[in-house]
UniProtKB/TrEMBL annotation:
Subcellular location: Cell envelope
Key word Membrane present: no
Domain Periplasmic binding protein: 38-323
Keyword set, alphabetical order: Signal
Alphabetical list of PROSITE patterns matching this protein: PROKAR_LIPOPROTEIN
GO cellular component: outer membrane-bounded periplasmic space
Species classification: Bacteria, Bacillati, Bacillota, Bacilli, Bacillales
The name this protein goes by in its record: Putative sugar uptake ABC transporter periplasmic solute-binding protein
Amino acid sequence: MKAVLKFISLMFVVTVLAGLLVACNSDEGASGDGGLSVGIVLPTRDEPRWVQDEQRFKDALEDSEYTTEILFSQGSSANEKENVDTLISKGIDVLIIAPHDGAAAGSAVEAAKSEGITVISYDRLITETDAVDYYVTFDSIAVGAAQGQYLIDNSEGSNVPLYLYAGASSDNNAFLFFEGAWSVLQPKIADGTFVIANSSEAEALQDKGDLSRDEMSRILSQVTTNWDPNEAINKAQTHLTAVGGDMKGDVAVLAPNDGTARAIADVFASDNEVSSYVVTGQDAEMASIQYIIDGKQSMTVFKDVRTLVEDAMGMAITILDGGTPETTGTYDNGSVEVKAKQTDVIVVEQSNVKSELIDSGYYDADEFSGLE
Ligand code: BGC
């Protein structure tokens, strides 16, 4: 029965999307000049997260003559600007963009805007410019809060050493994730459940519940991974070398995403004085799902990219049809309040890998070994 319902709802989504796609496919292409209708720019192919987004866009657009092109910026704002210029020259009407660096992307989207293109910020907010029309995103504060809460729920006793790691300061999400995590962890640091092991800046602020952007920046400057697993390894090694035995034993580790979580987990696993570690993640990357099944990573926050893609494309199509997309709130990007559509997230650990990721059709069971 459940399977039938799932099938019916899947068919419904497919039909609606196909209908929308067909609706905007004039013979000339939706841009009316035979050019591209929607340009999509993603930050890097080097992280499975964004390759996943590319695949989900392709899946959603399969079988349609809808004209889109996806370009990757490979962690460079200069490449990103070139990508946007290329898409502008191909005549796009809508730009969907996840920026490499949220502030640096301003000039790229301003160029698009001045050509009358509608700009949708995708997953990461473009900051300090009024050239962003819409934002489709997951609830990033909830991601961080779920990570922090997981550490609280899965640590025992008091004075548990807490290692903090964060994403890149050039990514607005890194602040939102940290803000969410800090909102639940800070009271537990203040009451002695956790002891911060690796950030003097966080220690100095440990009695403060609400941190300003500047205060968070100070902490991030010590514990950023820059979203780079190698940087995460180096930082984790340096931190474990610097601390005494009292900061080892059973520890808790706030890792911002799956790529850095696996890197950090490997370092903690290889330290003889660390008897156990609880480590967070996000993105439900396949490699991390295997780590979770194997007991090497504790949790991940599942952000269903299918929904984000559907929201972004749905918005693009509404715009191409001359309508106004539905939004659920706004995000202050430092310049304007950007109208946003936000999606919820789901915590995944060993016990619900199967129900959340396999039964939902997100991944195939045979991608993993040892799955119950
Ligand atoms: C995204 C995460 C991703 C991280 C690193 C963030 O902006 O929301 O899903 O893991 O960037 O690419």
